[in-house]
Structures are given as C-alpha cells and as structure tokens.
Amino acid sequence: MNAENVKKTLEISQQDFARLGGGALAYIREIETDEAVRLLGSPPAMAPNTKLFCLYNADGSPVSISGSREAAIGSAFEHELLPMSVH
C-alpha cells in the first residue's frame, strides 16, 4: 500500500466538540417526529412524519426543536449560538 493513499482521520471527543468556538457553535438537522419523541420523551402535538428541525450544541446535545429551518436559526440566535453548516 502506498503511504500517500492512506487517509488520516481526526478523532475529537464530545468535550472537545463542546468547546468549539468557545461553546457558541451549533448545528441544525432535520428530524422526523419519531426522533422528536426520543429527544422529548413524549410525542409532540403534530401529525406523524412531520419534518422538524432540531438545534444541537456542537457536542450533539439538543437545544430546541422547531417547525422550520428559519425558526431553528432564530432559536440559535436566541440562545446566543452561531449555527454552522455541517456536511
């Protein structure tokens, strides 16, 4: 195997992710109602299979659930978080 073809992976702990951007970074991910139930512990008052948007801290802990991406971005700013695009 050629050493030039080897990909290196970076491992970052959950605590290191939480400290990214001084703890002010967040991301938004589209979720379905079953994921909202898992996060909230009870079913939301919505139709099944409704698309929702969850705002997460950089460490992956959920902050809020919204009905639109725009509302989730607004929630990020309300919580003094900067939403980042992740792929």
Beta content comes to 15-25%
Major sheet description: 4 strands, mixed
Domain module tally:
1
Low-pLDDT stretches: none
Observed structural traits:
single chain, 87 residues, alpha+beta, 4-stranded mixed beta sheet, 4 strands, 24% strand, globular
Question: What does this protein structure show overall?
Answer:
The protein is α+β, with helices and mostly antiparallel strands and 87 residues long. It has helices spanning 14-19, 33-40, 69-78, and strands spanning 25-31, 52-57, 62-66, 82-84. The chain has one domain. The chain has three helices and four strands. It has a four-stranded mixed β-sheet with strand order 3-2-1-4. The chain starts with 13 loop residues before the first helix and ends with a strand.
Could you give a short description of this structure?
With 87 residues, this protein is α+β, with helices and mostly antiparallel strands. Helix content is 28%, strand content 24%. It is built from three helices and four strands, in the order αβαββαβ.
List the helices and strands and how they pair.
Layout: H1 14-19, E1 25-31, H2 33-40, E2 52-57, E3 62-66, H3 69-78, E4 82-84
Parallel strand pairs: 1-4
Antiparallel strand pairs: 1-2, 2-3
